[in-house]
Amino acid sequence: MKDLTAKVNSVQLINHNVYKITLHVENTSFVAGQYLMILLPTGEQVPYSIGSAPHELPSLTLYILVNDETSLAYRVVEYIRINEIINIKAPGGDCHVQNGMLESMPDQILLIAGGTGFSQVKSLYDDLAAQDFSGQVSLYWGLRTPEDIFELDWINTAQTNAHFSIDVIVNEADNSWKGRTGWLYEAVLKDHPNLNKSIAFISGSVGMVYGTLDQLELKGLNKDKCFSDVFAYAPHPEKPEL
């Protein structure tokens, strides 16, 4: 990863707790699915997936969830908000589209995200679309409530390719929600009951990633065809013996 400076273009609160950050970064490149590090004055380095695609450079987009003012994420947003120029490192991560997975000619690419894990799969989705990828690409985004959704305009305009689809699944729906409900893995398996020739990218918390992977493996997904940043820093919890 290289030390870089980034110009802050905008900081927007786009729902009740997610900020969309747009940066201008010269003289860099990355592969869809990679992340950058925000370098705080305290010396802390905080990773965030890049939510834009490489063809959008020199513009980069981040999505940062802030639950409360005592959190590290709050300090990151405040650092970005009060500075015109910030320090970053980029790019990092091996969970990306140049890992050789396209060479296997998969029938289906599944992009599965929980919460702000959306950032990584959005970058992957946009990049595959920009490459005119001819296979099937299905993005599944799981959220707790309808109020947690953001980037609806992107969702509505990104589904123009007949081979690409986006589904938002809400776990705790109210009467206002007319979309899909339930657990994220249930929606994936309802649409794709046989995953023998599929590839998956999963982005979210450690528990969400491994819980989803466990369910998809039962329907034929090969773990070697599944990719997640979680694999690099958190071992798979041991499954209980039956």
TrEMBL record:
SUPFAM superfamilies: Ferredoxin reductase-like, C-terminal NADP-linked domain (SSF52343), Riboflavin synthase domain-like (SSF63380)
Stretches assigned to the FAD-binding FR-type domain: 1-98
Keywords: Luminescence, Oxidoreductase
Family annotation (Pfam families): NAD_binding_1
A Gene Ontology molecular function term of the record: oxidoreductase activity
PANTHER family for the chain: NAD(P)H-FLAVIN REDUCTASE, NADH OXIDOREDUCTASE HCR
Family classification: Belongs to the Fre/LuxG FAD/NAD(P) flavoprotein oxidoreductase family.
Protein's name in the database: NAD(P)H-flavin reductase
Organism: Marinomonas transparens
Highest classification ranks of the organism: Bacteria, Pseudomonadati, Pseudomonadota, Gammaproteobacteria, Oceanospirillales
